[in-house]
Amino acid sequence: MRYSKLFGKTRHDAPHDANSVNSQLLTQAGFVEKQSAGVYNFLPLGLRVLHKVNDIIREEMDAIDGQEILMPALHSRQVWKATGRDDIMEDVLYRTTGADDQEFVLGPSHEEIVTPLVKKYIQSYKDLPLSVYQIQAKFRNEPRAKSGLLRGREFGMKDLYSFHLTEKDLDEYYEKAKEAYLKVFDRCGLKAHVIEASGGAFTDKFSHEFSVETPAGEDTIIVCEKCGKAQNLEVAEGKVEDPDQPKEKEEDLKEVDMERGFTIADNAKAHGVPEWKILKTVVYEVEEEGLIGVCIRGDLSVNTNKLEKYFGKPMRPASPATLKKAGLVQGYISPVGNPEGLSFVADHSIANVKNFVTGANAPAKDYVNANVGRDFQIKDFVDLVEVKGSFRCSTCDVALKEMIAVEAGNIFKLGTKFSESAGFTVSDSNGKLQPVIMGCYGIGNTRIVGTIAEASHDENGLIWPLNVAPYHVHILSLGKDQEVIDAADKLYQDLLDEDVEVLYDDRDGSPGVKFKDADLIGLPLRLVVSKRAMEAGGVEWKERAGGDAKSVKVGNVVKDVLKFINS
Fold first, then answer.
1. Closest C-alpha to 178, from 464, 500, 410
2. Which of 422, 346, 408, 415 is nearest to 378 (CA)?
3. Which residues contact 474 (CB under 8 A, 6 or more apart)?
């Protein structure tokens, strides 16, 4: 492609509303153009990258027996009502009405569509297992569409669905899919961590996310660099170090008057104790069950996801109005004296601390020297702590690392949730009807493009990995000397004849502009044809990923380029 004819050119100022590296660089380099918040046009350079990402995904999905289909983006709202997700995902659904007042949803996901589709073609257990996938646009009314291609309202996704007779068969396929996903990311030039995470609205089991470290990410992940265990913050486990404290005996419980702020820091300062000496008590509303008290060390935080897993129900911190109605004094609540008949659960972190400071369930009054078992009772001790990078790995006892990352893919064991909604059963070898067991596997293909930009760039622009670069080679001709132009034209044609993908900057522009644009676009290899280089008998060779420029003899250029792109 001659750059002079390319649709979509570089711009040297970032868009004023670009709030991430990928949105800045992809727009400046002419890969994408924002249409509205969370909605992007893909220009020729960006579309070439997207096609290459899609090709890699297809190859790896085909390798695990996935068969490609294409389902509609427009869904009857009735199928979403049947599974209950019309309500569960109400906040992100785009809805519209068609002829005869028929209600539709723009698909944010396709479980509701694929399950009855596959049901029509599965006659018995002999037709299982089966896996089908598609690459298609998804639509989600994200309230905070941001970070360029990382969080969009219209975005591309590869979603694969697998169907099985037994849990064992699903488990085996799930592991194959996990390995296939790692191959996809590796071939795209990305280092992905396999993260244990909550299944969210899709399943009550753990799912696995594939996360790539980048400051633009919205997830915090906890990684052990020794054993490789990695978890999303919402489910992460780790060893909480007991505080460094001298051995204490239990002192007498005392009630004291104390004017202080409501924060743990205020409380610790007022009493002259470290924050871990504060017994933090948070009251939650449990769906259909009322209030429950949760205790944890003051220097730690409660992980609500773990708490909901423990109770098996949605929970939220009680509002000030709810606390007041229950006779509880905000900022001074504690389990001492069993206020209002509340029961309490606690994180393990409080078990070995003596002489806590805690509220006295009255305004401006605290207890000092409160001890578990003597002064207050805990119904159950469980792991409720939100893990931080300062914790230690529960498996190998080394310090954990906390990272900010973007989720680029995820996989779920759906079980029978959607097959039961669709009445999808098959007879097993004994003639007994069994609900079909499903798995779901998603990769955001447009998000991968944005993630590569986030993970592979420098201060000058993008640095595309060879497998997904829009072109392998960027030729620059410098100056107006006809001999130089003819040599560049010949090199361009010689490389095309060898099926090398080439972007040829044939513009009548200054060397400075051409070099700056080449760095911004970020193709793997830059070849410069200039009078000075030709007088030295060669072409300047510079790899975008690093290293010094060098001169390559004209007669060797094509051979060396082929070696470079096939290495």
1. 410
2. 346
3. 502, 503, 505, 518, 521, 523, 525, 526, 527
Q: Is the Cβ–Cβ distance between 357 and 276 less than 8 Å?
A: no
3-state SS, residue 516? helix
Rounded Cα–Cα distance for residues 407 and 211 (Å): 4
Residues 55 and 169 in one domain: yes
Report d(CA 422, CA 119) in Å as an integer: 8
The DSSP string of 230-261 is EEETTT---BPPPP-----PPPPPEEEE----
Residue 126 lies in a domain: yes
Report yes or no on 333 lying in a domain.
Answer: yes
Q: What is the pLDDT of residue 200?
A: 54
Q: What is the CATH number of the domain that holds 60?
A: 3.30.930.10
15 part of a folded domain: no
- Whether 18 maps to a domain, the answer reads no
pTM of the model: 0.85
The DSSP call for residue 325 is H
Q: What is the CATH number of the domain that holds 281?
A: 3.90.960.10
Q: Which amino acid is at 520?
A: L
Give the residue numbers spanning the domain of 344. 254-382
Nearest CA-CA partner of 439 in 107, 71, 79, 66: 66
Taking 50 as the pLDDT cut, the residues of the chain under it are: 201-203
What pLDDT shows up at residue 205?
A: 61
